[in-house]
Amino acid sequence: MTKVSLGEHDALLVVDIQNDFLPGGSLAVAGSDAVIPVLNACIARFSAQGLPVHACRDWHPPDHCSFIENGGPWPPHCIAGTHGAEFSTSLALPPETPVMSKGSLRDREAYSAFDGTELAALLRKEQVGRIFIGGLTTDYCVLNSVKDASRLGFSIFVLLDATRAVDLHPGDGKAALEAMKGHGAIFLESGEIA
Ligand code: VGL
Ligand code: ZN
Question: Is the Cα torsion angle 128, 134, 194, 53 positive or negative in sign?
């Protein structure tokens, strides 16, 4: 087991821990609730060291193009302002956590936390070089955020025990990890953070 020590240019990005992706939600991801305590422990670690924690959320209009009724692949989910779009009450985000909303334009899908948000600018302002990422879902928002982070020049560390795949097609989660590897992502378990 390799240990990774946190340093002053590190930040944590918590992706889409929203009710609709959790058990009982409209787009429930298997085992997704298991990532919450893992992320809470990571949040506590980053916060204790004074390191930035950021969060993003899927934040769709009621007639979003990604919904089945509009020709997309997904049941309606994470409609802005609804219970399904709220963060889980079990997620312990610090009150001052900046929250990036994505996918809020009707005709445009946006899976990446960087897509149409201030995230890159904020991270640069905070002089962040390395992003530790966890949350939902491995094969969509996490994957696309990892790709963008890498293109934007950040080092990216994927917290494997803090992510779950939706696996719309079997194997998507595995393929996503391969794709992330191709973008230079480093994989670790949360217990490897020293
Ligand atoms: C996501 C499916 C549909 C995600 C968003 O954030 O990973 N997955 N919309
Ligand atoms: Zn969505």
Answer: positive
